[in-house]
Design a protein that fits this description.
By secondary structure, the chain is an all-alpha fold. It contains 3 helices and no strands.
Length: 103
Amino acid sequence: MSEPVKTPEDCTTMVDVRAGVDETDRQLMKLLETRFGYMRAAARIKQERSAVRDEGRKASVINAVEQAAEKAGLPADQIGKIWNDLVETSIAYELVEWDRIRD
């Protein structure tokens, strides 16, 4: 049985750090799977393909993440760029799903 992953504050070795990063990556992948499930749902629900891209919603999502990152003391601009890529990838995925469902 493996030891539980330590919090960042409790890490004392690089083995601890790497175990924490690996576990965090596993959790992020599960969350991404859920997020993209919502993209599939959106593709199913939206009646018009043109409704897939919503620049106002995109800006709102990125702004909220940047504000949360800043509040947490994280690099808000860089996290905003990551989220921009995530949202653009999500839009592309949703468009593919929208087309797939209706073919």
